[in-house]
UniProtKB/TrEMBL annotation:
Protein name in UniProt: 3'-5' exonuclease DinG
Organism: Paenibacillus lactis
Lineage: Bacteria, Bacillati, Bacillota, Bacilli, Bacillales
Domain of life, source organism: Bacteria
Cofactors named for this entry: [4Fe-4S] cluster
Keywords, ordered alphabetically: ATP-binding, Exonuclease, Helicase, Hydrolase, Nuclease, Nucleotide-binding
Described purpose of this protein according to its UniProt entry: 3'-5' exonuclease.
Length: 955
């Protein structure tokens, strides 16, 4: 095969737009790049400024360039007898056909391949498939992105990388891929068929690195072969070693592995405190600010404790991010420095693991909902199976519809055959469970902790000691899991997976199987299935009606929540139900009865077939169906308990989005106070629970957390230690906090013209002084939108980019990456940016906090908690709103200084911190930065002066 890799730069992306540059790289049959052709093209019209900004191509560049006809005379002969390749090739191909037509040539009729497809298939775990990102990932030269010849050459090199990867794939995987695409009349099908034929002619290579099973090539052996890391017959490695001796040895090895390692007071205190709590069976609240090294602070004592006592320690994080960081960064380091072998295992929620049985079933039956995309996703996964050891979806880059595809093949307990499954010994979920079973320390997340509690401790291995990191989230997660959350689509997904139309869905699949089955009862069983169909349709129609009417109750107002535009929220109170609630309850009653009927028929049918039909291919289908019927039964119960509105201790509310209306409906029922649940489930049951986070105290006191998490009784009994670690940073030198004392104030979530103008002017001047590198935190998305455009205009002349959360559909992770990559930029973010964003070093110099982060007082959960506090004769503002806001404020502040060498400025544009009686709680809770207030116009000169002093100190 000879490839021609084509790239056009154009004046826009409509077919009427003009080509301004062309790049073409020719790859010969020996895979050498024989030539790269590039030229500007005179479009005959001015180039839009936006395109010049993107590509760097200006009118002067193309003034003397050849016309389209002249360029095509050179290009067309090079396209003879080649396979045409492009990155997102449809774009370039469209322009090519157009140009051929305009210049009087025949259309291109050869094969066309897209490097986007190849990248997805060959490198299923790449974080991004954007050409620039991919080039830098592979270390390829790509010096002028968005210039056609440079793009064409980069794309050609990427294609070669993919071809090398395809050469390495086992023959079985190639056959599978060829088979997967065979049903499509596509050029990818032609390509993989050719590769398959070629590979089948070669001598068989030794495939010792893969395991072959049921026509799949896997990257792992059976998990039943994984043995514990220490031999049980050997003496305990810590039998005669005290904690101090162990730590001395660890520190010695840390110095060898990380020459720059120096022991930090705060971390040393943490080692001792955590060890003492584990050893004395006490609970511990320990606040460890940024830079303490808190992961090691709790992992090292946990390993010591679990190995010495031969009892597991469970570690729980709030985010999957932190779980991954522990797995990829901290555990490998500890493996090098702990003086004996130990095992730490990551154990996530079940839905993160691939179910091989479902995947095999899906692929063999080509059960695809959106065939074009699903075939690519399936191909991605076939290749991923040859690489993955964990089968964890976080390793996959599933774009577009990939998430829906995953849902149908994720492991779940309702459809698990357990030991009866042919895949059992290869199963990723059971591998993770087995590894957790033989591990000393198991790392899970808050969600899974609660799923485990709800499932009577069937999910996690048993444990007596627990470390909770990111503990300031525990209360929220507890509420979500101990309560109920139901979306419109939760119900619809289950219904459509059972039956979408007569061709797709698990019930039609079972019916097709019965048609081919000689079993005497197959006619009778088919009749049952035919009777279930209309019931499912009825339920779907009634659910649509009910959702529409529930959505109709939501008040039409846009400022109800700081989320997106037109986010509606309505609290429902058991005492006074909305006036037409009776009619809604009748719809729920219809759903309840019909679903009850469906589930009974379905369960009975499956039980009979399992007993009498001896057909493996039906087994896995019946298991999945039985799982779906269980889901339906659960939705039926959830809906009943939500609509009943009968528990005074629960807060009920609905949320929806103005754009997607009833399709975005979510129903919530959450316990108002989870403290007694937490006390009963964890603090009374476990010997030692250690809670840590950078933000647990308010104004140097832990009382807020003690009240909310149900620790008061433990504290009274002397079973709770609390520690606030000293900060390892010199905040007085490293951080300056300024407050403009004459700044206009604002009511509600929208700023008036004076406020917005003053804010934009001040932000733009500050951004110029700090050369961008600025993060601006808002509490309302509407205000962010008010500021975004004017700030963009104000900074356009200074070449400072303004990035806004939710402004161009980019995900949070991508925004942060773009912010880090572009040296001069300002990032505007709302709620999710207040924490968990790690931007160390030069990328962030200035943090602007527009308003103190109070939660909207009209959020149903906040309202209900406030009412409860009032009944207890407490002040909800001081007991709830202020402490919550202080903790978020501290989280926001924590974005700024991430290492001992970072320096930065915080501007707080909310004068309440110096004017109100509660402002001091915000300022006193910070770790001691230099604080100054001044008139607004004094801010920029002060910032410039402070930055200059820091520069001089460095010299």
């Amino acid at each position: 095969m000879k490839f021609a890799v084509l790239d056009f730069e154009t004046t826009g992306n409509q077919s009427a737009d003009e080509i301004i540059q062309v790049g073409l790289a020719i790859i010969e049959e020996d895979r050498g790049i024989s030539r790269v052709y590039g030229t500007y093209v005179n479009p005959g019209i001015p180039i839009p400024p936006f395109i010049t900004g993107l590509t760097g191509i200006s009118d002067s560049d193309v003034a003397d360039a050849p016309s389209l006809e002249e360029m095509m005379m050179e290009l067309v002969p090079m396209l003879d007898d080649v396979v045409l390749v492009g990155h997102n090739v449809a774009f370039d191909f469209n322009f090519l056909q157009n140009a051929l037509d305009r210049c009087g040539y025949l259309p291109f009729s050869g094969r066309i391949l897209d490097t986007m497809h190849f990248l997805k298939i060959c490198f299923p775990s790449l974080p991004s498939y954007q050409l620039g990102m991919v080039s830098s990932h592979f270390g390829l030269e790509h010096d002028r992105p968005h210039q056609a010849d440079s793009d064409a050459l980069a794309t050609a090199n990427v294609l070669l990388k993919c071809l090398e990867e395809i050469d390495e794939l086992p023959l079985l995987t190639i056959q599978r891929l060829s088979d997967l695409f065979a049903e499509e009349d596509s050029d990818l099908a032609w390509f993989f068929d050719g590769i398959r034929v070629e590979r089948e002619m070669q001598a068989v290579q030794d495939g010792s690195i893969h395991t072959y099973y049921r026509q799949f090539a896997l990257g792992v052996e059976d998990w039943t072969d994984i043995a514990p890391v220490r031999d049980e017959a050997e003496p305990n490695p810590l039998a005669n070693m005290s904690f101090d001796e162990y730590m001395d040895e660890v520190r010695r090895r840390l110095k060898e592995v990380l020459p720059q390692y120096e022991s930090r007071d705060a971390q040393d205190i943490m080692f001792q405190e955590v060890m003492q709590a584990l050893d004395e069976d006490k609970h511990l609240l320990i606040e460890a600010g940024t830079g303490t090294g808190k992961s090691l602070g709790y992992l090292l004592p946990s390993i010591y404790q679990s190995v010495k006592q031969e009892q597991k320690v469970m570690v729980s994080t709030h985010t999957i991010n932190l779980q991954e960081q522990l797995r990829d960064r901290d555990i490998p380091l500890l493996t090098q420095v702990v003086p004996f072998p130990f095992k730490a295992a990551i154990f996530k929620g079940r839905g993160h693991y691939l179910c091989l049985r479902k995947f095999e079933h899906k692929i063999n039956r080509r059960d695809f909902h959106s065939p074009k995309e699903d075939v690519i996703t399936a191909a991605q996964m076939l290749v991923w199976l040859t690489q993955t050891e964990s089968g964890d979806d976080e390793e996959l880059n599933l774009g577009g519809r990939g998430g829906d595809f995953w849902e149908t093949i994720a492991s779940d307990s309702d459809s698990c055959l357990g030991r009866g499954c042919p895949w059992f010994r290869k199963c990723y979920y059971h591998r993770a469970k087995h590894e957790a079973g033989i591990a000393d320390v198991v790392i899970t997340n808050h969600s899974k902790l609660f799923t485990d509690v709800k499932a009577n401790h069937q999910m996690l291995p048993s444990y007596e000691r627990l470390v909770i990191d990111e503990a300031h989230h525990l209360e929220d997660v507890a509420g979500k899991h101990l309560g109920l959350q139901m979306k419109y689509f939760t119900v619809v997904h289950t219904l459509t997976r059972l039956y979408k139309d007569s061709r797709s869905g698990q019930l039609p699949a079972l019916r097709q199987l019965l048609q081919a089955s000689p079993h005497e009862k197959s006619g009778e069983w088919s009749a049952v299935i035919d009777r279930i169909y209309p019931d499912l349709i009825t339920v779907k129609e009634t659910w649509d009606r009910l959702s529409d009417q529930l959505f109709g109750l939501l008040p039409e107002r846009g400022d109800a929540s700081p989320g997106d535009a037109g986010q509606y929220t309505l609290r429902l109170s058991p005492a006074k139900k909305p006036k037409d609630w009776g009619a809604l309850a009748e719809l729920e009653q219809q759903i309840h009865v019909t679903l009850g009927d469906v589930v009974r028929k379905g369960d009975k049918l499956i039980a009979e077939m399992k007993e009498e039909l001896d057909d493996y291919s039906a087994d896995s289908l019946l298991t999945d169906l039985s799982g779906l019927f269980k889901d339906l039964a659960a939705h039926r119960e959830d809906l009943r308990s939500f609509m009943a509105l009968n528990d005074e201790g629960t807060v009920y509310w609905m949320e929806a989005n103005g754009n997607f209306r009833s399709k975005s409906l979510q129903l919530y029922a959450v316990p108002v106070d989870v403290s007694k649940h937490l006390k009963e489930l964890f603090f009374d049951k476990k010997r030692s629970v250690i809670l840590t986070s950078a933000t647990l105290s308010v104004d140097k006191s832990f009382q807020f957390m003690i009240d909310n998490l149900g620790l008061q009784e433990a504290a009274d009994a002397g079973n709770l230690n609390t520690v606030q670690l000293p900060s390892p940073f010199n905040y007085r030198e490293q951080a300056l906090l300024v407050i403009p004392r004459d700044f206009p104030s604002v009511k509600g979530s929208v700023g008036d013209a004076v406020f917005v103008d003053t804010l934009v002017k001040s932000l733009s001047e500050a951004a110029i002084a700090t050369q961008g590198r600025m993060l601006v935190l808002f509490t309302s998305y509407r205000m962010l939108r008010q500021v975004h455009e004017p700030l963009k205009e104000a900074l356009a002349a200074s070449d400072i980019t303004v990035l806004g959360q939710g402004m161009d559909g980019t995900s949070r992770t991508k925004l942060i990456r773009r912010f880090q990559d572009s040296s001069a930029s300002v990032l505007l973010g709302t709620s999710s940016f207040w924490e968990g964003v790690d931007i160390p070093g030069e990328a962030l110099t200035c943090l602007a906090i527009v308003r103190l982060p109070f939660q909207p007082p009209n959020h149903p959960l906040v309202e209900a908690k406030s009412e409860l506090l009032q009944q207890q004769k407490k002040n909800p503002f001081m007991k709830l709103s202020v402490p919550q806001a202080v903790i978020r404020f501290k989280q926001g502040f924590g974005r700024l200084v991430r290492t001992a060498h970072d320096k930065g400025i915080v501007i707080v544009y909310d004068t309440r911190v110096i004017e109100s009686y509660y402002g001091k709680y915000f300022l006193y809770s910070l770790p001691g930065p230099k604080m100054e207030h001044m008139p607004t116009e004094g801010i920029v000169p002060r910032i410039a002066q402070w930055l200059e002093e820091r520069e001089n100190e460095k010299e």
